[in-house]
Amino acid sequence: MDRLLIDGCLSQALVAVAKARGLHADHVVWLGKGGLQDWTLVPFALDHDYTFVTNNRRDFLRQYAQGSAHDGLIILVPMVKRGEQIRLLGLVLDKIQSMPDTVNKLVEIFSGGEIRVRDWSEQDNDSDYSSTPGRLA
Length: 137
Hints:
Layout: E1 3-6, H1 13-19, E2 24-27, H2 38-47, E3 51-54, H3 57-65, E4 73-76, H4 82-96, E5 105-109, E6 115-119
Parallel strand pairs: 1-2, 1-3, 3-4, 4-5
Antiparallel strand pairs: 5-6
Helix pairs in contact: 1-4
């Protein structure tokens, strides 16, 4: 994982958090993709080798479960303000920068800082999981 695409539902300040750690990061608004439907952002992220960062859990879990391969999906589960988004993304980046890669991984962070990493693709997903964020796999 070395390229992040930050969803429009999250602060543009998250780009600076990623860049401070040596990652390439873009915000969908900066790429002229603000306001596009989720189903159009997913192919863009896949085609450009982005790990996607979002707060829109349910829609993106469904989209990413339909594909056989992706560079990763990071979900900030709680809807929180800018400062807390920055803190949570920093914790996630600490965790995943020690992982070999994020290919086909779903990484979720919760308000208390708990991070869950699991496989998430067409072959490896649990369709019930998308509606129950607190459920352990």
